[in-house]
Design a protein that fits this description.
globular; Rossmann fold; about 40% helix; alpha/beta; UDP-galactose 4-epimerase, domain 1; 7-stranded parallel sheet; 3-stranded mixed sheet; about 20% strand; 10 helices
C-alpha cells in the first residue's frame, strides 16, 4: 500500500509511520517547511517526505495528486493552550487545512480511503452522569481547539454525505508515550523530572490544573486503532478510541514523582492554567471494539515509565 500521513513528523505521525513500515507499506508524509524532524530522524530514507503547508490549497493538492491508497490526516494545531492565544491560526490550520485536503481528494479520479483524526476535546463539557462518552454524545467544545476539530470532523462527514467520499473519523481521547511534545501534560512532567535529575533545572515540577480527569491510552495502541479504522471502519462513521479508564492529573504526577531518582516538589504555575478546562473526559470505545476487536494492550503505568525513559535518553544524547 501507498500511505500518505499528513503531519508525519508529529508525535502520532511518527509512531503511525513505524507501524506501517513494519507492515511493509510504502510510507509518504507531509512536513511543514523548516519543521523539526526529530521524531522521524531515525526512519531515514525508509519514508518519503514532502514539504507542505496544508493552509495552501495548491501545496496539498500537488501532493495528493501523486496517488495513494490511504491518507491519514493528522496535520493540525493540536495544542489546546495555543488555541487560546492564536485562535485564528488554529482555525485556519485545522478547518481550512482539512477543507483543502478533502477538496483535493474529491477531484481525483480514483479516491483513497481517508482517516480524519479527531479528538475527545470535541465533546468538551461533559457531566459526570453523562459518562462514559459515546459517539452520540453532544459536541460542546470548550476551547478554540475543540471548536476547530468539530469543524474538521463535520466537514469530513459532510463530504461523505455530499460526495460519497470514503472517510472514516476517529475521536481519540488522550494518548501519551515516547516522543510526546513537552507542551503536553504528561511529557511536561516527565521532562521536568529528567532535567532536574541531571541538574538542568531546580527540582520543582511546575503544573497547571491537577483536578481534571482524562482517559489515557498509549500512542502505540492508538496507532494500531488508526490502521484498523481504515481496515474495517465504515465510511462516514465516527469512532471513539480510548481506554475507558480516567486518571486524575494529580495521580499522573504522583506516579512520575515516584519514578524520580531525586526528591522533587511541586508548584502551581499560573501560566499553565486555562481560561476554561474540561473537568472530565471518560470515553467508551465499545462501538469500535465491537467492529474491530481492538483493545488497549499497554498499561498506562508503562506509558508513563517509557515517557520518562525517553526524556532521560534524549537529554543524555543531547548532553
Amino acid at each position: 500500500m501507498r500511505i500518505l500521513i499528513t503531519g508525519i513528523a508529529g508525535f502520532v505521525g511518527s509512531h503511525l509511520a513505524e507501524a506501517y513500515l513494519q507492515a511493509g507499506a510504502e510510507v509518504h508524509g507531509t512536513i511543514r517547511y523548516r519543521s523539526d524532524q526529530v521524531n522521524i530522524r531515525h526512519l531515514g530514507d525508509a519514508i518519503t517526505l514532502r514539504a507542505c503547508d496544508i493552509v495552501d490549497a495548491s501545496s496539498i493538492r500537488s501532493i495528493v495528486e501523486r496517488g495513494y491508497d490511504r491518507i491519514h490526516h493528522l496535520a493540525a494545531q493540536s495544542y489546546v493552550p495555543e488555541s487560546w492565544t492564536h485562535p485564528d491560526a488554529t482555525m485556519r490550520t485545522n478547518i481550512t487545512g482539512t477543507l483543502h485536503l478533502l477538496e483535493s481528494v474529491r477531484r481525483l479520479p480514483h479516491q483513497p480511503r481517508i482517516h480524519l483524526c479527531g479528538t475527545s476535546e470535541e465533546y468538551g463539557l461533559v457531566r459526570e452522569e453523562e459518562t462514559p462518552i459515546t459517539e452520540d454524545h453532544p459536541l460542546r467544545p470548550m476551547s478554540p481547539y475543540g471548536v476547530s476539530k468539530v469543524g474538521a470532523d463535520l466537514l469530513a462527514y459532510q463530504y461523505h454525505l455530499s460526495y460519497g467520499m470514503d472517510v472514516v473519523r476517529t475521536r481519540a481521547f488522550n494518548h501519551e508515550g515516547p516522543r510526546r511534545s513537552a507542551a503536553f501534560v504528561t511529557s511536561s512532567f516527565a521532562k521536568q523530572i529528567a532535567e532536574a535529575e541531571v541538574g538542568k533545572r531546580e527540582p520543582i515540577i511546575r503544573h497547571g490544573n491537577l483536578e481534571a480527569k482524562r482517559d489515557f491510552s498509549d500512542v502505540r495502541d492508538v496507532v494500531r486503532a488508526y490502521i484498523l479504522a481504515l481496515d474495517k471502519g465504515k465510511s462516514g462513521e465516527a469512532y471513539n478510541i480510548c481506554s475507558g479508564v480516567a486518571w486524575k492529573i494529580s495521580d499522573v504526577l504522583k506516579h512520575l514523582i515516584k519514578l524520580a531518582r531525586i526528591p522533587v516538589r511541586t508548584e502551581v504555575d499560573p501560566a499553565r492554567m486555562r481560561p476554561s478546562d474540561v473537568p472530565l473526559l471518560l470515553g467508551s470505545a465499545e462501538k469500535f471494539v465491537a467492529l474491530t476487536g481492538w483493545k488497549p494492550e499497554i498499561p498506562f503505568e508503562q506509558t508513563l515509565d517509557d515517557t520518562l525513559g525517553y526524556w532521560r535518553d534524549r537529554l543524555r544524547r543531547e548532553g
